[in-house]
Amino acid sequence: MGSNYGSLLIVLLLLLGYVLVQAQSTDESTGKIPDNVNMFVSGNFSGTRQATVRSCDCGWRNTESTDLKIVGGYETGVNEFPAMAALIQLSTGSLFCGATIIADRYLLTAAHCVYNRYASTLGVLVGDHNITSGTDTAYSALYYVNAYAIHPNYSTSTYNNDIAIIQTTSQMTFSTYVAPICLPFYYSTYDFSGQQVIILGWGQLEFSGPTSDTLQMAALDVITNTYCNQLLSNTVTTSEMCTYTSGKDSCQSDSGGPLLWTNSLNSRMYLVGIISHGIGCALDSPGINTRVTSFLNWIVSTTTDASYCAL
Ligand SMILES: *[C@@H]1O[C@H](CO)[C@@H](O)[C@H](O)[C@H]1NC(C)=O
Ligand SMILES: *[C@@H]1O[C@H](CO)[C@@H](O)[C@H](O)[C@H]1NC(C)=O
Ligand SMILES: *[C@@H]1O[C@H](CO)[C@@H](O)[C@H](O)[C@H]1NC(C)=O
């Protein structure tokens, strides 16, 4: 008797397994992601894709700045770029790097920004514009850092794999003015050369030139890695991306801050680079940035409790 029930159970389990496999393959056969559908990609991007369709949004830009031109760059509008954040040394309240919001507890920055620092000494300031006060907009908020993950292959000597993920202690409150950037999941094969990107920063550190209280932006051109390697005697890796705009004067930016590519099809901004080394927009020398598309799998598999919006 017992063995009969056992067999029945096995048959039922096999049947159930078959039904589940069928259901999954049906999902995958419709797998092409429909246009104009907002999706969350959660869990493990490199493994079975666990995308669930929800309403989500990312990468929009608020009212543009007018004409406050500064050397080589412009002051942004207040809260124009909702994903922009500043890394703050809590003991002094000073900004030392830029960062970009990618999910409600996560930001991306450069590895060298957080390397050798204790997470508990760090904060991220979001929704801010004039960083001298830290509370100058209705959306300014300081979040504490719970932990960070530096890419395991980050090199302190070459700056290769200069990327880190920051986890805040609590969920960030999102609004029109504080919101995540889009990650370039659907553009992972693009090299972005010939495209323009926006870089953002307060320029308080690491770059020469006048510093600024308020967030500054500049538009730069992405060049091919081949051309960049000609300029920099073959020191650039495939997981880096160079920006170079001949004739641009020096302008401010901060390490760890974003290179934003605007998709002309949907007007969304995607984080395609992280300011790493070399000068963001100096005369006659390309800036070297971390190429975000090379790290999408690492980002998604390191932030397993996050949801990403794939547009
Ligand atoms: C993600 O999926 C890959 C391939 O299936 C697997 O090797 C890896 O362990 C997974 N990572 C996580 C964090 O689940
Ligand atoms: C930033 O705020 C400080 C303190 O309120 C103020 O003195 C300064 O002029 C502001 N900077 C700009 C560029 O508005
Ligand atoms: C780090 O580099 C090793 C050797 O090239 C490679 O096998 C590994 O996948 C890399 N780690 C990540 C997270 O990319």
TrEMBL record:
GO terms for biological process: proteolysis. It is found in: Secreted. One of its GO terms (cellular component) is extracellular region. GO terms for molecular function: serine-type endopeptidase activity. Residues 70-304 form the Peptidase S1 domain. Pfam families: Trypsin (PF00089). Residues 1-23 form the signal peptide. Keywords: Disulfide bond, Hydrolase, Protease, Secreted, Serine protease, Signal. Its main location: secreted. The keyword Hydrolase applies. The keyword Secreted applies. Belongs to the peptidase S1 family. CLIP subfamily. PANTHER family: TRYPTASE-RELATED (PTHR24256). This is Peptidase S1 domain-containing protein. It comes from Rhynchophorus ferrugineus.
